[in-house]
Amino acid sequence: MISNRRKLYVWTVRILMVLATALTGLLTLFLVGYVLLRGIPNITWELLSTSPSYLADRVGILPDILNTIYIIIATLVIVLPLGVGAAVYLTEYASNRRLVGIIEYAAEALSGIPSIIYGLVGMLLFSNNMGTSLMAGALTLVIMNLPVIMRNTQESLKTVPQAYREGAFGLGAGKWRVIRTVVMPGCVDGVVTGCILSVGRILGESAALLFTAGFAHVANGLWEGLHSAGATLTVALYVYAKEQGEFEVAFAIAAILLALSLLINLSATMVTKKYQRRNQ
Amino acid sequence: MKPIITAKDLCLWYGQSQALKNIDIAIPEQSITALIGPSGCGKSTFLKTLNRMNDLIPGVKITGTVEYNGQSIFDQDVNLLRKEVGMVFQKPNPFPMSIYDNVAYGPRTHGIRDRKRLDEIVERSLRDAAIWDEVKDRLKKNALGLSGGQQQRLCIARALAVQPRVLLMDEPTSALDPISTLKIEELAAKLKDKYTIVIVTHNMQQALRISDHTAFFLLGELVEYGDTDQIFTNPADQRTNDYVTGRFG
Ligand SMILES: Nc1ncnc2c1ncn2[C@@H]1O[C@H](COP(=O)(O)OP(=O)(O)OP(=O)(O)O)[C@@H](O)[C@H]1O
Ligand SMILES: [Mg+2]
What we know:
The complex is a heterodimer of chains A (280) and B (249).
Chain A: H1 4-39, H2 45-49, H3 62-93, H4 97-110, H5 115-130, H6 134-158, H7 162-170, H8 175-183, H9 188-204, H10 207-212, H11 222-226, H12 233-243, H13 247-278
Helix pairs in contact in A: 1-13, 3-6, 3-9, 4-6, 5-6, 6-9, 7-8, 9-13, 12-13
Chain B: E1 3-14, E2 17-28, E3 32-36, H1 43-50, E4 60-68, E5 71-72, H2 78-84, E6 85-88, H3 99-109, H4 115-128, H5 132-135, H6 148-160, E7 166-170, H7 178-191, E8 196-200, H8 204-210, E9 213-218, E10 221-227, H9 228-233, H10 238-244
Parallel strand pairs in B: 3-8, 3-9, 6-7, 7-8
Antiparallel strand pairs in B: 1-2, 1-4, 4-5, 9-10
Helix pairs in contact in B: 3-4, 3-6, 4-6
The complex binds adenosine-5'-triphosphate and magnesium ion (MG).
C-alpha cells in the first residue's frame, strides 16, 4: 500500500515534467512561428536581389547573402585540408598516444570557448594586419571550426575497420596508399557531417564576425568581396534590428536563417543516420 | 624439397610477454604446411611474422632470423615482401568497393595501370580462386554483397592477383559453412602446384586432408614438425600425440 504522501509526490513530479515538456515545445513552436509569421511576408524578390540604397530608399540583402556564401566558401576551403589533414595525422601516423590525447582534449575545449573571444583574438591577429574584411572573418572562423572538422573526421576514421587496413598492407600497399584508397573513402561521411555542422556555425556566428569582418553591405565579386569588409546575414540581422530599426528586414533575414538552420540540422541528422546504418 | 622460408631461433615478445620461443622451421616450396595447436599458442603470431604484419603492432620485439628466398625478411623491402608472401585472414575482409577493384587493388598497388592487363589478371585470379563463374556477371557490384564463403574466395583471388609465391592463411574457413569450407580446401590443394601455402587450422581433419607437413605449436614453442602422416599416425612427442588424438586442447 503506497502512502498518500508518496502518491501526491509522484503525481506532482509527473505533472511538473509534463508541464516542462509542454513549455519547451510551446516555446519552440512560438519562437519559430513568430519569426516565420513576421518574416515571411517581408521576403520579396526585391529584398533578395538588390543592394541597399539611400537614393532609392530601399533595403536589399543581396550583399549579405553573397558575403555569407563567400565566407562559407573561404572558411571551408581553408579549414577542410587543415582539419582533415590533422585528423589523418593524429589517427594514422602519430605514435605518441599521450600527445594525441592532449590535442584531442584541447580541440574539445576549444569548441566550448565563447565565440566573442575568438572575435577578439581574430581582430588582433587578422583584422589589425589585413584590415577588417571577410577574409579576416573567414580566418577567425577557420580557428573556430578546425576542431569541428578534425573531431568529426577523426571519429569516422576510427570506425574504418582495422581489417581493411590489414588487407591492404597485406597486399604490399604502402602507408599512404592504404590511407588514400582504403581509409579516406571510409571517412567521407565524417567530413561531410563536419562540413554541415561548420556551415551551421558560420551561419549562426555574429560576435566573432562583428569584430573581424565588419558590417558593410556592398555587393562584390568573390575575390573583391573577401578583401573588403562585409556583413553576413546574421551580422546584417543585428545591424538592421539594433542600429537602423528596420524590423521588417530583420525578421525577413531571421526567417531565412531559421529555415536554413533547420535544413542544416536535418541534413546533418540524415548523414549521421546513414553512416550509423552503414557501420552496423 | 627446397625450403622457401626458414626461421632460426625465432623469438617474439608482445611487450613483456613472450609469444614465440626459439622457433626453428624450414617450410618447403610448393607444398601445404599446416600449423596446429591450442588457442593462444602463437600460430597466428608466427604466421604474421612471416610477412611482417607484426610491424603494425606497437611493442613487438623479434629476435632470431627469418629468411625468405635465402635473405632475411627484415632486410627486404616490406611491401615487396608482402607482395611475394601474401595473406588471407580469418575473417573475410574484402574492401568496400567493387569485386573488380578488390582484385585489381594489389596489381594497381604495384604499378599495373593498363586496363587490358588488369582485366586479364582479374579474370585469371578469380578463376584460380574458383569464384569466376559466380561473379563474372557482377564484377562492378560491391564485394560486400557476396556471401561469406564467396567473400573469402574473393580475398584469396585478391591475394593471388599480385602473384605471390607464398600464401599465408589464418584459419581461412573458420567463419564458413561446410560447403564453402570444402571449396576452399579443394582450392588450396589445387593452388599448391603454383604456390606454397601455410595454413593455420583448428580442424584436425582439415590438416590431415590437405596438408603435406604439419607443425604443432604449444605455448609459444614448436613442439614437433614433420610430414602430416607421421605427425598424425606416429608422433614423436607425447604432447603431439595427446593433441592430435583429441586428449587435450
Ligand atoms: N597484439 C597483441 N598484443 C599482445 N599480445 C598478443 C597480441 N596478439 C596475440 N597476443 C598474445 O600472444 C599469444 C599468441 O597469440 P596468437 O594469436 O598467435 O595465438 P593463436 O595460436 O593464433 O590462437 P588462436 O588459435 O586462438 O587464433 C596469446 O597469448 C595472445 O594473447
Ligand atoms: Mg590465431
